[in-house]
Design goal:
- The chain is 88% helix and 0% strand.
- The protein is mainly alpha-helical and 56 residues long.
- The chain is flat, with a radius of gyration of 17 Å.
């Protein structure tokens, strides 16, 4: 496999990985109880703030 083919496959692999992660998250949300989903959604701003503080 040459480098051009490998470089072309990387974006495709990233898109497939993103779609799989999205599907897993949606299924987890659908299976969770409503109170759990609400708790996670309320915690998201704090999680984002923590991740932004750790940004190098």
């Amino acid at each position: 496999m040459d480098y051009v083919t490998l470089l072309a496959a990387v974006p495709l692999a990233l898109v497939v990985a993103l779609l799989c992660a999205t599907l897993v998250c949606v299924v987890a949300i659908l299976r969770a109880h409503r109170s759990e989903v609400v708790a996670v959604v309320r915690a998201l701003p704090g999680l984002v703030a923590a991740l932004l503080r750790r940004k190098p």
